[in-house]
Amino acid sequence: MDERKKRIFSGIQPSGELTLGSYMGAIKNWVALQEEYDCLYCIVDMHAITVRQDPALLRRRSVNQLAQYIACGLDPEKNIMFIQSHVPQHAELAWVLGCYTQFGELSRMTQFKMKSQQHADNITAGLFTYPVLMAADILLYQADLVPVGEDQRQHVELTRDIAQRFNGVYSDTFTLPEAFIPKMGARVMSLDDPSTKMSKSLPDGCVNLMDAPEVIMKKFKRAVTDCDTAVKFDKENKPGISNLLTIYCAATGKTMDQAEQDFAGQGYGVFKPAVGEAVVELLRPIREESERIMADKAYLESVYRTGAERASYLANKTLSKVYRKVGFVGR
Ligand code: TRP
Fold first, then answer.
1. pTM of this prediction?
2. Burial level of 181, CB count in 10 A (0-12/13-18/19+)?
3. Where are the domains of the chain?
4. What architecture is domain 203-291?
5. Residue 13 Cα, ligand 1 centroid: separation in angstroms?
6. Which listed residue (28, 200, 254, 325) is catalytic?
C-alpha cells in the first residue's frame, strides 16, 4: 500500500440484507473513495453475533455481502476487502483495548442503551463491549478516516479517546481516527416512516439491493406521503415526499431543482412510480452482477482469502507493537 495516501476503514454487519439505504448512504461513497485513499472494507461478522443470528444465514449473508460490495463497484484489487473473523488480530487487540476502556464510558453509549432495550432478554457482555471491538477494527490499521453514519459518531469518538489514552501511557502507537460523515451522502429514510432511517429492522419501508423490480415498485407505490399534492422538497412539513425526492436525485444524479421540475403540476400517482422506476434501473445492474458473482464461489473465496492475508499483514504490525508495549513476552 502507498504510505502517503490516507487510510480508510469501514464495515457493515452481515446481520441482514444490504439495503438501498446502505448503498446510497455508505457503499456508493466507499466506491468514490477507493481512488484517492487506501481503503479497507470489512464484513463485520463478529459484531453481528452481539445479537442472536441464525448460523447458516449469517454465513450466507457474509459471503453474499462481499459479492454485493463488488457488484456495487468496489474493486478487490484496489481495496482490502475481507471478513472480520478471518483476521484474529481484531479479537486480540479488542481484549487489550478493553483493559484501557472504562465501564462508565461504555455505559454511556447511546447505541448500547437502545439495543439493550430492543434485546432486553439477551443483554450480553458482547453487546456492551461492541464499541471496543470496533475500536480494534479501526486502530489495528492505523486508519485516518472512518466513513460512518451519524449514529456511529459516538463510537468513533470513543475510539479516539481509547487511542489517545493508550498513546499517553505508552507513547505514540495509534493514529487518531476521525469520523468521516459525508455532507452530501444521501440519508435514506424508511418508506413507511420517514422519521426513522431506512433499515433492515423495518422491512416494509426498506428496499433491499437484491429486491426484484416488482417488489421495489410495490414498496414505492405504498410509500407514505402527505395530504397536499405538490412534489416539493420540504423536510419539515413533507418528510415523506422529501425522502422520495432525495432517493430520486441519488438514483438519477439530478439536482433537487431538476427533480422538482420533472414533476411540476403532477401528483403523487405519477411521482411515486417514477421514483420506483429510477431505483429499479439503478439496482438492476447491481442485482444482476451480484447474482453472477454469488454463483462463482471459487472467485469469492479467492477474494476473501487474499483480503484476509493483506489485512493480517498490516494488523500484525500494530498488534506486535501493542503486545510489546504492554509487557507481553515476545514469541
Ligand atoms: N458498528 C458499525 C455499524 O453498526 C459497523 C462497524 C463495525 C464499523 N466496525 C466498524 C464501522 C469499524 C466503521 C468502522 O454500523
1. 0.94
2. middle
3. 7-185+297-326, 203-291
4. Orthogonal Bundle (1.10)
5. 7
6. 200
98 Cα: distance to centroid of ligand 1 (angstroms) = 17
Q: Give the residue ranges of DSSP H helices in the chain.
A: 20-22, 28-33, 45-48, 55-71, 89-98, 103-107, 110-118, 125-140, 153-170, 213-221, 239-252, 256-262, 268-294, 297-326
For 7-185+297-326, CATH number? 3.40.50.620
Sequential pLDDT tens for the chain (331 residues): 555 799 999 999 999 999 999 999 999 999 999 999 999 999 999 999 999 999 999 999 999 999 999 999 999 999 999 999 999 999 999 999 999 999 999 999 999 999 999 989 999 999 999 999 999 999 999 999 999 988 999 999 999 999 999 999 999 999 999 999 876 667 899 999 999 999 888 888 999 999 999 999 999 999 999 888 899 999 999 999 999 999 999 999 999 999 999 999 999 999 999 999 999 999 999 999 999 999 999 999 999 999 999 999 999 999 999 999 999 999 8
> Which amino acid, residue 69?
Y
200 a catalytic residue: yes
Residue of 137, 151, 157, 200 to mutate, ligand 1, most atoms within 8 A of C-beta: 137
Our answer to whether residue 235 is catalytic in this structure is: no
Examine domains 7-185+297-326 and 203-291 and report if their fold is the same.
no
Question: Residue holding cell 463510537?
Answer: 155
Ligand 1 geometric centre to CA of 9 (Å): 9
